[in-house]
Amino acid sequence: MEFVFDPVVTSLVVAGREERFPVRRVYCVGRNYLDHIREMKEGDERDPPFFFQKPTDSVVTDGAVVPYPTATDDFQYEGELVIAIGAAGYNLSVEEAGSVVFGYAAGVDLTRRDRQRESFKNGLPWEIGKSFDHSGACGVITPVEECGHRLSGSITLSVNDELRQSGDLAQMIWGPLEIVSRLSAQYRLQPGDIIMTGTPAGVGAIVPGDVVSVAVEGVETLTFSIGPKEE
Question: Where does the record place the Fumarylacetoacetase-like C-terminal domain (predicted)?
Fold first, then answer.
């Protein structure tokens, strides 16, 4: 098969392996920690999880320099656990959900917060606030047979070595396997899908020159820096 131009494959490093993990889709969970819902003053604490997507080519990896995006004056971090899907699954129960999980990683849902708030206020889609270039940072994937299912454990985010977010995965309203189950009722999951599972409280702004690090217990730390504003 020939193409009119060479296709680009987005992929992630897998801990301890030479093979890389090809990314198919990037799903994100909105508002999955109570303390984050309360700090944002948005949504009902009892709402079921809702999902949105980022473009596959928005993914950036460990060590990247992320350009400060255009069209925002409030560029923010959200440290998250990432689930990597390694097998197909549809309409899975919570008990079945673990069978399709390949592994876990640390991630950051980068957000144009001012644009997101405008969209929310006006009832418009969130893409401008959530789905722009370089908006999905994801670290090295640790296979589940090495780290187990990450149902609890610390999650922290630091900017320039200053702690900004600190929580525990057990504080999720919907845990990782519940998320996989719920998402599989809406979309047919396929190998290569990744799911960003929501952020604890403490989100805030970052600027050019900042170094962001996310540590999730049981997986490798993700670190990247913020570059000059895009022209």
Answer: 26-223
pLDDT in tens, 188-212: 999 999 999 999 989 999 999 999 9
> How many folded domains does the chain comprise?
1
- Examine residue 121 and state whether it is found in any structural domain, yes or no: yes
In a domain, 4, yes or no: no
Give the distance, in angstroms, between the CA of residue 44 and the centroid of all CA atoms in the same chain: 22
In a domain, 5, yes or no: no
CATH of the domain at 67: 3.90.850.10
Q: 127 and 55 in contact (C-beta within 8 Å)?
A: no
- Domain range for 116 is 11-229
Q: What is the Cβ-side half-sphere exposure of residue 225, based on CA atoms within 13 angstroms?
A: 8
What does the alpha-carbon distance between residue 88 and residue 136 come to, in Å, rounded to a whole number? 23
Q: Say what the pTM is.
A: 0.94
Instruction: Give 144-185 as a DSSP string.
Output: HHHH---SS-EEEEEETTEEEEEEEGGGBSS-HHHHHHHHHT
